[in-house]
Amino acid sequence: MEKLKRYAVFLIGLFINSLGVSLITKADLGTSPISSIPYVLSLNFPLTLGQFTIAFSLLLILIQLAILRRNFKAEHLLQIPISILFGYFIDLTMELLFFIHPQTYMASVIYLLIGCVILGFGVYTEVLANVAMLPGESFVRAVSSTWKTEFGSTKVAFDVSLAVIAGILSLLFARRLDGIREGTIIAALLVGFIARLFGRKLACQMLFLKFRNS
């Protein structure tokens, strides 16, 4: 029963995560680093952001298999249905946010910041559930555990690499930098901080309630 509750929390977090990604994308200032390559591809080929997200996630799982080899466990395969669901959630939330078309730069910034808060809360919720990881985070964990690097530094290097590759793909396919903008950098800097902030604030509130009721 406890495991079932954790998976329910994870699914809620996954949907919140997709909503944050979609709102950041709708802000039209770029997208989150993990979605940058799928987003650039979706701007240049007739597949949706969600569909390219699924394909990219499956690629990350295959690379994890190559990195981990014997350490690749059956539980890692849980990333496959999670990736498919996450991709469908992204397409669903992109449709739900059809009305968002910021007309000014300030409106774009506001949508971007709201999206970062939502995505940060989604990341916190997934971590709180503690049952599975999205392929992006699982890939970073595979690299850091195999080559004994610090997870946080590896995550930053991974995000930067994704943004750079997305930029190169954009220049290659569109002959201009399309889909990678300042919003990508802002999201990379803010989302992790916001997730940790939610963790600290909610943990403090839970301790306070526990103390008050004791």
TrEMBL record:
Spell out where the chain crosses the membrane. 7-25, 45-68, 80-100, 106-135, 156-174, 180-199
Tell me the keywords, alphabetical order. Answer: Membrane, Transmembrane, Transmembrane helix
Q: Which InterPro entries match?
A: YczE/YyaS-like
Q: What is this protein called?
A: Membrane protein
Pfam families named in the record: DUF6198
